[in-house]
Amino acid sequence: MEIPVHIAIIMDGNGRWAKAHGLARNVGHARGSKNVEKVCEMAWHMGVKYLTVYAFSTENWSRPQAEVEALMKLLRNYMKSSIKKAQKNNMKIRVIGDISILSEDLQTSILTLIDATKQNTGLNFTIAINYGSRDEMTRAMKKIAVDCLEQKLQVADIDEATIASYLDTEELPDPDLLIRTSGELRLSNYLLWQLAYTEFYFTDVYWPEFGETELRAAIARYNQQERRYGKVVLSEGDR
Ligand code: IPE
Ligand code: IPE
Ligand code: MG
C-alpha cells in the first residue's frame, strides 16, 4: 500500500458524539482532544510524514462563550502536556492560523512547544488554530502587497510558488489525503488553496471514535484512486 505523505483531517463530530452518549459537548471535546494523540502515533507508525488537523476555525468564535473557553482550555492543556510526549515521539509541531488574537499565555505555550520540537525529525504535526483559509489568503495577500510596495517583490515575479510561500503552510507539502469525520461533506474554510488536488475521504464516524480501522480504511480507499492531475491516463485499447 502507498502511504500518503501528508494527511489533513477535519476532526468533526465531538458535540454529536457527546450528545449520542448523553454527555455535555465539552466532554466530547475532551475525548476528541485525547484521540488526537492516538491518531498521531498511529499515523506515524503507518509511515505518514505530515499530519495536519483542524482544531479551531476562525468561525468557531461564534459558538457559545463557555464552549469557546473550554476549547481554549483544552488547547492550553495540550500545549503544556504534549511537550514531553512530542520529545519522546520525536514529533515536530507547527501551528497554522492567526494566533495573534489568542490569549498571551496560550500564545506563549504554543511558541514554546514549537521551539522545543523544531529540531525533531519524526512526524510533522501541524495544528490549525484560529485558522480559516480565507483569512490565511487575506493575510498572505497583504504581505505580498507590502513586499511589492517595498520593492522586495516584483509583480511580474509572482507565481503559484510565491503565493504558496506566503501562506501559513509554507513549509508543508500539499495534503495527499483529506479526511473529514462525522458525515459532513464540506471544507468549512480548511486549506482551500492546498487541497486543490487532494483526495477526499468522508466517514460517518464521530471524531472521538476515529481509530485505526478508519485510518486504514481511508488509506485503502486512497490507494484505489487514480490521481490524474487533469491528464488523460491512456491504457491499452483506448483510442
Ligand atoms: C469538532 O466537533 C470540534 C470543533 C469544531 C472545535 P464539533 O464541536 O464541531 O462537533 P459537532 O459537529 O457539533 O458534532
Ligand atoms: C470545522 O468544523 C472546524 C473544525 C473541525 C475545527 P465545524 O463543526 O466548525 O464546521 P461546520 O460548522 O459544520 O461547517
Ligand atoms: Mg462540527
* Total number of helices: 7
Q: Compute the gyration radius: what is it?
A: 19 Å
Q: What characteristic shape results from the CA principal axes?
A: globular
Give, in order, the helices and strands: EHHEHEHEHHEEH
Calculate the terminal CA-CA distance, rounded to whole Å. Answer: 30 Å
Key descriptive features of the protein:
44% helix, binds 3-methylbut-3-enyl trihydrogen diphosphate, alpha/beta, binds magnesium ion, 7 helices, single chain, 239 residues, six-stranded parallel sheet, 14% strand
Give a structural overview.
There is one protein chain. The protein has 239 residues and is α/β, with parallel strands linked by helices. The chain has seven helices and six strands, in the order βααβαβαβααββα. The protein has a six-stranded parallel beta sheet with strand order 3-4-2-1-5-6, sandwiched between helices. β3, α4 and β4 form a beta-alpha-beta unit. α1 crosses α2, α2 runs parallel beside α3 and α3 runs parallel beside α4. One 3-methylbut-3-enyl trihydrogen diphosphate binds next to α1.
List the helices and strands and how they pair.
Layout: E1 6-10, H1 14-20, H2 25-46, E2 50-57, H3 65-89, E3 92-96, H4 104-117, E4 124-131, H5 133-149, H6 160-166, E5 177-180, E6 199-202, H7 212-224
Parallel strand pairs: 1-2, 1-5, 2-4, 3-4, 5-6
Helix pairs in contact: 1-2, 2-3, 3-4
Bound molecules: 3-methylbut-3-enyl trihydrogen diphosphate (2 copies) and magnesium ion (MG).
Summarize the structure.
It contains 7 helices and 6 strands. It has helices spanning 14-20, 25-46, 65-89, 104-117, 133-149, 160-166, 212-224; strands at 6-10, 50-57, 92-96, 124-131, 177-180, 199-202. One 3-methylbut-3-enyl trihydrogen diphosphate (IPE) is lined by residues 11-16, 56, 60, 71, 182.
